[in-house]
Design a protein that fits this description.
single chain, 646 residues, binds magnesium ion, binds thiamine diphosphate, six-stranded parallel beta sheet, alpha/beta
Amino acid sequence: MARSKKTTVNRRNFIRGAGAGAAVLATTGSPATPQQPTAPAPRVAAPNAAVREAETGTPASVEVLTNERPGSDFMVDVLKSLGIEYICSNPGSSFRALHESVINYGGNRNPEFLTCCHEESAVGMAHGFAKIEGNPLAVFAHGTVGLQHAAMAIYNAYCDRVPVYVIFGNLANAVTRRPGVEWAHSVQDGASLVRDFVKWDDAPASLTHFAESAVRAYKIAMTPPTMPIVLVADGDLQEDAIAGDARLSIPKLTLSAPPQGELGAVAEAARMLVAAENPVIVADRAARTPAGLKLLVDLAESLQAPVIDQGGRMNFPTRHPLNHTERSRALIANADVILGLELTDFWGTVHSYRDQLVRTSQPVTKPGAKLISITAGDLFLHSNYQDFQRYPELDLSMAADAEATLPALIEAVKRLTTADRKRAFEDRGTKLAAAGRDALDRARTEATYAWDASPISTARLSAELWGQIKNDDWSLVSDVPFVSRWPLRLWNFDKHYQYIGGSGGAGVGYGAPAAVGAALANRKRGRLSVSIQNDGDLMYAPAVLWTAAHHRIPLLSVMHNNRAYHQELMHVQRMANRHNRGIDRAVIGTTLDDPFINYSKIAEGLGVHAEGPISDPKDLGPALKRAVEIVRRGEPALVDVVTQPR
Ligand SMILES: Cc1ncc(C[n+]2csc(CCOP(=O)(O)OP(=O)(O)O)c2C)c(N)n1
Ligand SMILES: [Mg+2]
């Protein structure tokens, strides 16, 4: 990077004093309102300085240079202008100036630096946060190694269409790199590691370029399909002084209005839906904002059509008479028109599949059933990673954001609904309401099976938890398939923040950090966050519990401790059966026993109130009650429940 000495002041240009680590920190004015940090007293070289030099490659005694207006201060101004509330990060020297600017120049408020013990946890937190809040928070990752750790969690967010704002430090200029480790942590094109599963990335070469790309990145991440982005914060750009005559400004952020379906196609869809005898609405990532749930209720009620909520988002109230998620198979088989809203897998929705020695599939729809799709997924696709599923044969397809299209679709449906059709809709609605009541009764009955069993059934766990939280303003910040979807079958979900769906990419290790991130978003709104936490998932990076304790993030984690990677156990059992060798040894590599993991001790060690392991179902209610009290007071708590597999 060529620089004119006239316009740029190098980070080595000012001499202020001497002594290892004797940084005198102060900042000057800038475009934002800076906080004035107190300058720490200079420290003298520690006696073990030579040891430290050998370990870190940092000379123990150097001329101490000061730079009172580093580029990183301006970068913080940029982040503030975007309204970024938090930085989730594991510290790394490639962004040391940015880190220091956040906490001192920026006053550690909006954004506030949250200490994470793993980059995967940092991104997982950002993922969960965005699912509640709608907006991204930022993650700082260390060049190369930090981004490598972050990669799987970025992939999950990409598959889940969730905006995450990742900034990583890098030192592009080989000449200014510190000898040793800084070379190992520098890279020519760092974002290439994750480019296949982010929407956009850039490596700005100047501060003006940084500001422009930062604003552009935010806009791109937030335009449906919403996705993660990656921005490189060059080390020299962070640490070099802003030239006195630099004319820096931050461009205005204007989010794009989300794309709405073409009106002719919307009218056609409305005609098909109104004329249908058995229309079915299927929603996956449809409710992108709080408005989405209400719009979907409006559409379903206007048509008196059943809704199957595939659960990528909190799309539809669970106890609404038109919620027929539990009857999915029968409804799809009987439908004459199926409307898919932001479906990840339309093909999988209308086909059955057998995972046998010969893999087979067949359509489950009746001949002539018409399929309508509205998804922003059609507007953006990468090639390499195959999360886009099989190609569905559709009759009408809109490359558009489903939520943004719903108002026009609802209006068109209402316009086309004659008195005759309205009567037919009402009859349909009456029958559906009765069938829906049966489904809830069935779920309640099924939940009583193995009620007193030990280990504890997942239905009992879900029912006991519901009993403790149902009168609070609660939010379930974990996914449900691992517990047979019991919460969605038994609890009354009717608010957009009450459920956050799954990981997107099925990268295990998402659950724990996403729950903490979602609880962080819920904290400022005084909501009670609860998570049903898988054992295998927590063990990837359990220290996120410490982050919750350290930053006082109230979250109740109820362990679904089945002492296994149970899903994988079932896969190995299936193979053992197929190979006709008996399933006895399938526990090898798939169970978490000998010794059992004591989750309450782990949690306690990380500063979290904990109870358990609980195996007797009679002890569960009282333990949950005590833990909920702690969480209501603003602290995290964990109850370890030894459970049956599913
Ligand atoms: C990063 C990653 N590694 C491995 C897997 C494969 N995998 C799928 S489910 C699963 C077990 C998860 O165990 P747990 O969270 O305890 O859930 P359980 O299956 O016991 O209900 C594993 C290891 C994965 N999906 N992601
Ligand atoms: Mg498990």
